[in-house]
From TrEMBL:
Keywords of the record: Iron, Metal-binding, Oxidoreductase
Compositional bias (Low complexity): 190-211
Region of interest (Disordered), ranges: 187-219
The protein's name: Fe2OG dioxygenase domain-containing protein
Domain Fe2OG dioxygenase, first and last residues per copy: 175-298
Length: 378
């Protein structure tokens, strides 16, 4: 299997659009990952962000930790190396997480002390950012917000193309998105010589945990992920698990974004479009790696019962058109996915559970009442 490239510009030409839709349908249902070229995001918007990343992560630790994630019940802010856990192993990356600005609706209702019932606890995931005031990174907030706005527009335009490629009525997938999209600014340091020698091993195994940038997972933070690999093409790290269980490199390709389907997309399409398992190995050698994933938001109150009509009408998995349905490697099938497995009725609760398990310091500070429940629900 290879990772296909979809030329977004071909959607604008009536002579190339039919083949593009066919290629996109194949990428969605049989691969789960793709490169998107000619995506239309302004070069200056991308370059401003790429240029800011090395300066951002070169800041002293106390400065970065002034907006530590643990201070935010919305899981927005900075987390240091080893703070996040994936596949039971600590990830060796540092990152800032931001989102489009929303008020803390949950905190407002609770603090107001009204007789109105409190919103579901998962509503607390939505809220305002912690914006740093870094003089060393001029225009930082402006740069991030410009990129987020551009990605929001691209994500919705791409979603409409996906809707057409899957033979769905216009806007039929749009209603499952929102209200808050997220972005991570991520930094990986080079692996040590001993760990780079083990770069082909499974990072979830004890012998190779030092090479784990991010452990094997299916994205749970959004509907679709749009990844900017913001380093030189020679600096690799991202790997995709094929349906046959083979790890494939997904190296940076200048001018493209990498797109993959999240767990919500797999649920909404009734398993027709699998959320593909992927991981990041620490870059070997001496150069740092930077990446910027954008996660298109999912409606928090989404339930599987909301999807029955869509499944029955458009994603009948016995239909001949979906020949790859159900095909997945053993490792892929065993990836943690509480909403996929039906452990929780709403997407929002499944997402809260995932966030708490990944960032346990935040969970202990802000979600003590449910911490043990989510940590031990395997």
């Amino acid at each position: 299997m290879s990772i296909p490239t979809i030329d977004f510009h071909k959607a604008d030409d009536a002579t190339t659009r039919p083949q593009l839709l066919q290629d996109l349908r194949h990428a969605l249902s049989e691969v789960g990952f793709l490169y998107l070229s000619n995506h239309g995001i302004g070069e200056s918007i991308v370059q401003d962000l790429v240029d800011a990343l090395p300066r951002l992560f070169a800041l002293p630790d106390p400065v970065k930790e002034s907006v530590a994630l643990v201070n935010s019940p919305h899981f927005l802010g900075y987390s240091k190396f080893g703070s996040e856990i994936t596949a039971r192993v600590r990830d060796q990356r540092e990152q800032f997480e931001f989102a489009n600005e929303l008020p803390d609706r949950y905190g407002f209702v609770v603090s107001a002390g009204t007789d109105s019932p409190s919103p579901p606890l998962y509503t607390r995931l939505q809220g305002p950012n912690q914006w740093p005031n870094f003089s060393e990174v001029p225009r930082f907030r402006e740069i991030v917000e410009s990129y987020v706005a551009a990605m929001q527009d691209l994500a919705m335009r791409f979603l409409e193309l996906v809707t057409e490629a899957l033979d769905l009525p216009p806007h039929s997938l749009e209603r499952f998105t929102g209200p808050q999209d997220r972005i991570k600014l991520v930094h990986y340091r080079p692996s040590s010589p001993s760990s780079s020698a083990d770069a082909t091993a499974q990072p979830s195994s004890p012998s190779s945990s030092s090479s784990q940038g991010v452990g094997p997972h299916k994205d749970s933070s959004g509907w679709m992920t749009f990844l900017l690999q913001a380093s030189d093409p020679s600096i690799r790290g991202l790997q995709v698990l094929s349906k046959d269980g083979e790890w494939l490199d997904a190296p940076p390709v200048p001018g493209t974004l990498v797109i993959n389907m999240g767990q919500a997309f797999e649920v909404v399409t009734n398993g027709v479009c699998k959320a593909t398992t992927h991981r990041v190995l620490l870059p070997p050698g001496e150069y740092d790696r930077y990446s910027v994933p954008f996660f298109q938001g999912v409606r928090p109150d989404l339930t599987k019962s909301d999807l029955k009509a869509l499944w029955d009408r458009h994603f009948d998995t016995s239909a001949k058109g979906w020949k790859m349905v159900g095909r997945e490697s053993d490792e892929g099938r065993n990836i943690d996915g509480p909403f996929l497995r039906g452990r929780y009725d709403t997407w929002g609760e499944a997402q809260l559970r995932t966030k708490i398990r990944s960032h346990r310091d935040v969970g202990l500070r802000w979600y003590k009442d449910v911490f043990d429940k989510y940590i031990s629900d395997d």
